[in-house]
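Exercise 7. Predict the joint structure of the components listed below.
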Amino acid sequence: MLGLYLHRESPVHALPAGWKLLALAVSATAAFFVSDLAVLGAALAACVLLFVAARLPLRVAIDQLRPLLPVLLLFFAVQAAFVSWQAGCLMVGRFAVLVLLAGLVTLTTRASDMIDTLERALGVFRPLGVNAGKVSLMLALTIRLIPVLVDLVQEIRMAQRARGVERSPMALLVPLMVKTLRMADNLSDALEARGYDPH
Amino acid sequence: MIELRNVRHRYGEREVLRGIDLTLTERRVAVVGSNGSGKSTLARLLNGLLVPTEGQVLVDGIDTRKDARAVRRRVGFVFQDPDMQIVYPTVEEDVAFGLKNLRLPRDEIARRVDAALARFDLTEHRTWPAHLLSGGQKQLLAIASVLVLDPAYVVFDEPTTLLDLRNCRRIAQVIRDLPETAILVSHDLDLVAQAERVIVLDEGRVVADDAPAPALAAYVARMS
Amino acid sequence: MSSFDTRDIVHCALFAAIVAALGLLPPIPLAFIPVPITAQTLGVMLAGAMLGAKRGGMALVLFLLLVAAGLPLLAGGRGGFGVFLGPTGGFVLGFPLGAFVIGWLVERLPRSGNVATLFIACVIGGIAAVYALGVPWLVLVGGLPFEKAAAGSLAFIPGDLIKAGIAAFVAAAVRRGYPTLATR
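Solution:
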């Protein structure tokens, strides 16, 4: 499964997904309460060290932050103008720490392992009526169907181009909806034909 | 043995099957008919995916109305479009899916998956994502994932319609070699010719029921 | 969700895959506005409008679980937990809520096959509900004062209104043209 995982032999990679999630939750919560720039600076340094421990190049850490740059700069400007530049730095720093930590978890954990862990975590919600088995099947089915739907969308786009209507969202979305809903019938039949029983 | 007794089937106002009485005992049975003849509906009645609005369908004595699940354990179903029946992202996971529904022990599942993959030359591709397979391989995967359940009967609904010539021939060969009893619903006259018995449907009724040559002659005559 | 039957399971997975597929599409230029639109949030609205509250919401939960697992399914190829902890995190977390609210309204409002009704549902669910999570998140995590966060987000509302309109027309057309496609 193609995900954002970057394989390395490192202690961070080897750590089980559940522990990493827990660590992320704890440190993210802690980061919320930081209001001291010096402490934030230390936290950022710690993040960099963790990337080093994970044997991931610094370039990768920067890549986590790059897409956020425009938004962060905008908010920094707003903060600096209306509150103070310190508040702006605090905000940017906080986001940076959060995104780096979260990114590290994603980069060092295989998607399949993460899915297994998330499925187990969902077991907690069983009393609320959450059926882990069904969620598990739905997740697998979704992963299986993404390339099928990407192909379908591309097919419809091509048909749109052929008819000169590529700028019409209706010409894309109505056929997409119709074909998808028809697919649902076939897929349900297939599931039942192979003995799937939701009860 | 599969029996259809006085079967009628309606979708809303439209009557799709008008009085079908058949007893299927042959190892290879083909059902042909034009679009709208009712053959896809007939196929789906054979494994309990549909229950007839009137009449009964019995598989080895089990009424599809009473125990569709038991029927489905006996009757496998291969759909026309493999993309519509592949459920799991990778080849081996998809083959294992049906076995998991039977709640078999893990090592039994592994053994049967290995055997099914080997049978259809998919072992090398076992960890591949299904969407990277060719059309022919996808159809083989669909067949493997059904046959791994050891059904006594297999219904094929237009198995070669979406395939190119080479893959048609390949699937036809695979079907020819199947020890299980197969019911083929198809337009593909080459495929149909390998059957022992050919049933021709037109507008919901059986209009010919014979060996391939005479039945197909009747079919072609009707279509002209 | 224990009440989900086979068809429900398939619907949820299909629409989760649609939201993902729409995110993988490059932005679509439209005939009547100068800026191409990302179709992903359209997918969120359609999930709610076509599937109703529980299934629409579930479809988006599935989508988010896969994003969290590290699949780059969010428009722009983004994925992983970082998405949720960044500035747009609240908006993304709002996807399931938005779909749920849209579905809830579509299930209950009279004349739900009507473009106007569907539009209202998409605006309340797809915009109000989503922003109700997105803006406070910005305040909470970014420490932005509320008015500034809200004002900044207003820039996106016209685009989202257009998307709500498109979703309404599509949903109405599908229901009208194919009434037998049971969506509940």
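Discussion. Helices of chain B lie at 39-46, 68-74, 91-101, 106-119, 135-147, 165-176, 189-193, 212-223.
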